[in-house]
Each structure stands twice: as structure tokens, then as C-alpha cells.
Amino acid sequence: MAQQADGGEARGDRPRTIPIDVKETQKTFIVAADIPGIPKDKVKVNIDNGLLAIVVDKSVLDAKEGNQQEKDQERMLRKERSQNYEPRSVRLPPSANLQKAKAEFIDGSLLIIIPKVEKARERKIDVQ
């Protein structure tokens, strides 16, 4: 692992995992993810065969590097922050209605709402 100018380890370039929460309600599944510092157009959500994947476009890293001349004149003393995210995926249950999934991204927080298929919802039956 690379060393910082102060002798610490360089952790800022390592990909980090996108933290997520997955919640189930009576009518939906909700996936929440925090991806601070990434523009909305660089966040992709894919669903394939019941697997939901959150991907951050790697070109966002290249755009933030700046021009080479400025970079040659500076020296990183310590780098712990990273915007290099590994793709994150979660398997959704068969009761998830994947065709009706919706996602919104506000201030670095991604919220994906997936309704349940009608048949999967619990309902009460009157006994006569």
C-alpha cells in the first residue's frame, strides 16, 4: 500500500462499497444508498433477473482529476476521501414488481422504491 507524506497509508484511491439499507413494507421494498459527491447522471441502477445493481460511472473520477499541469505542481500529503465506488448489488425477492421500480437521487442519496406484486401482498379473508 502507498504511503502518505506523513507516513500513513493511502486509502483514498481504494474503491469503497456503497452503503445500502433494504427495507420491506406491506406494499413495497425500499433500497436506500448514500453516494455523496457523485452527480445524478453518473449513477446507474440496473435490474436483471431479480438482481438490483447500483453502479457509479468511473468517468466521474477522470473528470475530477483536473488538468495534468496543475496536478504536476501539487503534492498530496494525505488522501482518505474517495469517490471510487465498487458496484453494489442486492437480490430482490420474487414478490418484487421489477417493472414498476422507481428511483430518485437527491443530494447524494439514492432511493429506489419497488412495489410488491399484488398476489404477494397479504390480505385477510373473511371466514363465513
Q: What is the approximate shape?
A: elongated
Low-confidence stretches: none
The percentage helix is under 10%
CATH architecture of the domain at 20-65 and 80-120: Sandwich
Distance between the termini: 71 Å
- Oligomeric state: single chain
Return the CATH topology of the domain at 20-65 and 80-120.
Answer: Immunoglobulin-like
| Class computed from helices, strands and strand pairing | mainly beta
Q: How does the major sheet shape up?
A: 4 strands, antiparallel
Region (Disordered): 63-91
Protein name: HSP20-like chaperone
Pfam family, one: HSP20
Keywords: Stress response
Brief characterization of the structure:
This protein has helices at residues 59-64, 68-72; strands spanning 16-17, 20-24, 28-34, 43-48, 51-56, 85-86, 88-91, 102-106, 109-115. Helices cover 9% and strands 34% of the residues.
Task: Give a description of the structure.
- The protein is 9% helix and 34% strand.
- The protein is mainly beta.
- It has a domain at 20-65 and 80-120: Immunoglobulin-like (Sandwich), CATH 2.60.40.790.
- The longest helix is centred in the middle third of the chain and has 6 residues, at 59-64.
- The model has no long low-confidence stretch (mean pLDDT 82).
List key phrases describing it.
128 residues, mainly beta, Immunoglobulin-like, four-stranded antiparallel beta sheet, 2 helices
Helices, strands, pairings?
Blueprint lengths: L15 E2 L2 E5 L3 E7 L8 E6 L2 E6 L2 H6 L3 H5 L12 E2 L1 E4 L10 E5 L2 E7 L13
Parallel strand pairs: 1-6
Antiparallel strand pairs: 2-3, 3-9, 4-5, 5-7, 8-9
